[in-house]
Amino acid sequence: MPKTPERSAIVGWGSITPIGSNPCSTWEAALSGRSGIQALHDPWCSDLATRIAGRVDESAFASLEPILRRRADRCAQLALLAARQAWGMALERVPGVDPDRVAVVIGTGIGGLSTMHEQHIQLSEGGASRVNPLTVPMLIPDAPAGQVAIDLGLHGGAHAPVSACASGAEAMMLAQMLLNDDRADLVLAGGTEAPVNRLGLVGFSAMRALSSRNDAPEQASRPYSIDRDGFVLSEGAGILAMMRDRDAPKGATLGWQLASGSSSDGHHIVAPEPQGIQASRAINDALRRADIHPEDLCAVQAHATGTSLGDLAEARAMHRSLRTVADSLPVYAPKGQLGHLLGAAGSVEAILGLQALSEGILPQSINADPLDPGVDLAVTTSEPVKLKEHQSERFMLKNAFGFGGHNISLILAAPCNKPEQLA
Length: 423
Prior knowledge:
By secondary structure, the protein is α/β, with parallel strands linked by helices. The chain has one domain: 3-Layer(aba) Sandwich (Peroxisomal Thiolase, Chain A, domain 1), CATH 3.40.47. It is built from 12 helices and 15 strands. It has an 11-stranded mixed sheet with strand order 5-4-6-7-1-8-15-14-9-10-12, with helices on both faces. It has a two-stranded antiparallel sheet with strand order 2-3. α1 crosses α12, α7 crosses α12 and α9 crosses α10. The longest helix is centred in the N-terminal third of the chain and has 20 residues. It is globular and about 65 Å long. It starts with 7 loop residues before the first strand and ends in an 8-residue tail after the last strand.
């Protein structure tokens, strides 16, 4: 039988997304139904089939030191911005943390894609002498974790799970494992991604994964909708400060990660296993480890990217695991607003999930209506939904799936009474 882990307390969080520069503004935008998808007018994308994406406002980078703007890829810069928010919040709630006992686990699906693209252009057009000597440390996928550890002076280990679109959620799973194994007292965990550039758009477009609704950006990301035509590429980062629940000071906890489940499809490098069999195993694993039943859940936060195969596979997995509960359990698909943040999606969305649990309200899944008839779920298509209470806490299933068949499911919880600070 799976071992029941000690729950991990969330004592801080930070995020930077296409709809907000921090968790508070992102939550407010999510609740209001605002989309972060926009048309791209950069010269480099004028000839591309897809010219829409979710972008972070450039003003958010103003706080970064000039040397970091020059020497860190945008992927690492986003991680630094989110990590500083989470670390600052954690220190207010848990002062006196030993930096030697603080670990960093930051995943990414791709890493420094813009650096790779830009330096290949320099090599092709200007020759070897034009290539930046920092190319490799800027593009490697572990750079965000390393940069955060350096920036904040943390020495408890720096880790970088790379599991495509499940990377941020897998980072949260690994953080709980580090805490349960007493390898750290606090972990900054999450994901980051900066794929909105010519190479990123061309690559995903070539595999026919992207929506091409260039004339209607805000309606382009349509998870679970009958007329979805692919996901929308987005950038951003989300970092959570996690610690053992028994070590968290009274009043410091924003919510909890009860447990996580994982599996691998072993099916195809891009397409999910169509019946959701292995994704269902990840959900079942998470529920067993959390020692809760489908009936205990008050909501699901779906992976739901807006691809025809992926959305149906996830819906089937949920019915397989949750059985009749899936018929009425509210489901929120945040990518209609955020777009797909790839390796950052799991952690950015988990923060929204914890906020929803705390506030007792699940945002609307914009652009999901009309639902695909094959998606027989209670998706929040028309308006936000008030969440039911379960004793003193609410529980949510959060899914994250990635290319290659990576399946991660998290069980999140928050007290029914609203915490003092959600920002």
